[in-house]
Design a protein that fits this description.
Elements: H1 2-21, H2 24-49, E1 59-63, E2 69-76, H3 79-88, H4 96-110, H5 117-125, H6 127-138, H7 149-171, E3 200-202, E4 215-217, H8 226-237, H9 239-247, E5 254-255, E6 265-266, E7 271-272, H10 304-313
Antiparallel strand pairs: 1-2, 3-4, 5-6, 6-7
Helix pairs in contact: 1-2, 2-3, 2-4, 2-5, 2-6, 5-7
Length: 314
């Protein structure tokens, strides 16, 4: 594990050096290196959680025909498998910074023509809490003692920058009226489709209706599409809960709206937050609580069973 941890620290150090240099190529390299460092930190924790500390959990496994499981040494798990295996060990940190920088890394390689220095600064600024959680809480290491002074100061500065900018944006959503108690309003998960920034604000801070929000990116000035932005943010906000619900045989908190076909139907309120499509509370015949999976456009007030029965009588 020591080598894994050393590689993680080196990757983050190099990434912050790339950021301080600031050229286009080095900014892209900064994102790649810091992302790689975070992934390696997660794998270091996974190594520590392996049986007898043997590191077996970081490797892909293959189930043989006889049911035995063979470890594929040399091939380590990807980020999703790492997160899943840590969750199996009861370790579920806030992976949002890792997921966000992974998405941004993919975007600057395939979507955006350039890496925006301010957006790179945002992405790096989100990483320090995760570094502190993985190293301090789970590896028992004070991260400040492992990084160079220059790297540590750069991490602190980017964190302060991001938090100050984000706080101003989040204030513009304080008056939004949100009905769901299970799914929070995704104010921290919205991002600009043009530059990738998460510094999204509402033009009119006093406007309370989420369907009437007029969004603006405080980094590049573009106005992200409300439907696309809110849908993507809700999917990201509920990602962890949806995974755990499906894994445990439960109900995911978000579903596809039968009316607008967006992933914006929130189960606990029985309503789509984009188009206001709503499911009747109970079946008119049996009184069973209705779910979006029961919905039939021809028989909107009936459960799937009684909708089927009534259709046979028609």
């Amino acid at each position: 594990m020591d080598k894994l941890l050393a590689n993680a620290i080196d990757s983050i150090e190099v990434g912050m050096e790339d950021f301080r240099e600031g050229s286009e190529r080095r900014l892209v390299s900064s994102v790649r290196n810091v992302y790689a460092g975070l992934l390696l930190l997660g794998k270091a924790v996974l190594w520590q959680e392996s049986p007898n500390g043997d590191g077996s959990l970081i490797y892909y496994t293959k189930t043989n025909k006889d049911g035995t499981v063979a470890v594929r040494a040399g091939i380590t798990v990807n980020v999703k498998d790492m997160q899943d295996r840590l969750a199996d060990q009861g370790i579920i940190p806030d992976w949002a910074p890792l997921n966000a920088i992974q998405t941004y890394r993919n975007d600057i390689e395939h979507l955006y023509s350039t890496a925006d220095p301010n957006v790179v600064k945002e992405q790096l600024g989100r990483t320090l809490p995760l570094i502190q959680t993985l190293m301090g809480d789970h590896l028992g290491i004070d991260p400040q003692t492992k990084f160079s002074e220059q790297c540590w100061q750069a991490l602190l500065e980017t964190k302060d920058f991001f938090e100050a900018m984000q706080a101003a944006c989040l204030l513009t959503f304080d008056d939004i009226e949100w009905e769901s108690e299970e799914v929070p309003f995704p104010r921290t998960d919205m991002h600009c489709s043009d530059c990738g920034s998460q510094l999204i604000a509402q033009r009119d801070p006093g406007q309370p209706n989420p369907q009437h929000m007029h969004l603006i990116c405080r980094n590049c000035g573009e106005e992200p599409d409300l439907e696309d932005t809110l849908e993507a943010a809700l999917i990201e906000t509920t990602q962890a809960d949806s995974y755990l619900a499906v894994k445990d045989g439960g109900r995911a908190p978000l579903d596809t709206c039968p009316e607008c076909t967006r992933e914006t139907f929130i189960v606990d309120i029985g309503k789509c937050v984009l188009c206001d499509f709503e499911i009747e509370a109970k079946c008119a015949i049996c009184g069973e609580r209705l779910d979006v999976t029961d919905y039939s456009p021809e028989y909107p007030g009936l459960c799937s069973y009684h909708a089927h029965v009534v259709s046979k009588d028609d």
